[in-house]
Amino acid sequence: KHMIDVHHREWTGVSNQLILENLRRLDQAGARIWVRIPAISGVTDNPENLDALVSFCRNLDAVQQIHVLPYHPGGTSKRKRYGLNPSTREPQAMPADMLERTVARLRHAGKPVYTGG
Length: 117
Fold this sequence. Notes:
Oligomer: single chain
Strand content: 15-25%
Radius of gyration: 14 Å
């Protein structure tokens, strides 16, 4: 969900370290990986996160493509039920122009980037 561990913890309740390590292991094993990242305005679209994702994906041969998934509120009730993201900030869909800029930035990873997925 987010490359910066502290933000990943804030939004999911868990660290991203095991996820990233598993992706590295899959890369070493020769797997084919499709990276999927939610497009959440003010959360996943910040330059620090996008640059970290570009760098990470660029360094993994197994990453075949990147999918930017427009946010939908389907997980809101589940998140509340499990006490995740107790802040007053509710995730918001990314405006179309920001979504386009996010996709363009992720193309620097040298992998195909798609919206949806």
